[in-house]
Amino acid sequence: MALNPRMDIADEMIACLREAVGEANKTKQHAQRLIGQYVERMANGSLEPKDRDFLDALCQRQPKKEDNCRDSDGDDDEPGSWQFLAAFLRYIYSGNYPTDRGVGKLVIGFIGRLQELGMHTPLRERDVIRQSTPFRPGDLVRSVSVQLAVELKKLYRDGVVKLQNQFKDQQKGGRAKVDGSDLDIRSELTAVENFLIFNKMSGNKWKIAPLSTAANGFVSFSESEIVSLCWKRELLKNRILQIVRMTFSSCNSQDDVTRNWLPDKEPEFLLRRLIADVGPIGLTALNRRDVGRRIFNLGDIVPTEYIDA
């Protein structure tokens, strides 16, 4: 890996990314703890009708049989869950409440429910002026929000299908201790509720809290998100503007960089000039347009010791 000759820029960039990765993982772990504690309370009899809205937001229900033509192990998108979790993680990181509409309204309700259960104390009241943070919350937590949505789906929605299949296999072998009618996944219940029922039948062998494995320590950011993460560090901001103004002299803002300049550059163009020459060169204009968002795994850019949370 050939670091940029401006070692002060490279060092500052590594420090910025290391801090961002640490904050993103810390935010995700905090959310996991709260969600795990919440699910445990639901398993222990604290569930109220309103909780089903929150459980559905955390993990969408199992599709009905007539709609369930997909492999349950597939990585299909869960836009509702991801949007809810992204808003929740933005709140956890910043302490700023979301707007009181749409998904934000549901997140505010969930925060209130956690307070009712004595599991969470907000950093500040809802009517307090929004506080600034070192990183823009949405750019910081997008990647870990997607990770968490996938983890919850695999644990609860896919997990209940795996438990159901285990019981059915036991039935065929004459080893099942439950009646066949007990093995239906009930569409009127949330994915979490169905999972808890089947897990209890199995002797509570599965964990019910979403805990990350060692493989979940990475965080990926798009190039535009990396610009955002760097923007409040004057050394990096000035260096970015210096690079951009070589071909875009009127560039003055972050939006100028990410919306007007960056889309026309080949993948990793800016990263190579800030930290390391690790990307492909010589792409055609058509190749550049086809690349899209250009997501980076930080393990490809920053030495491993700088990305472990």
From TrEMBL:
This is Uncharacterized protein. It comes from Entomortierella chlamydospora. The lineage of its organism: Eukaryota, Fungi, Fungi incertae sedis, Mucoromycota, Mortierellomycotina.
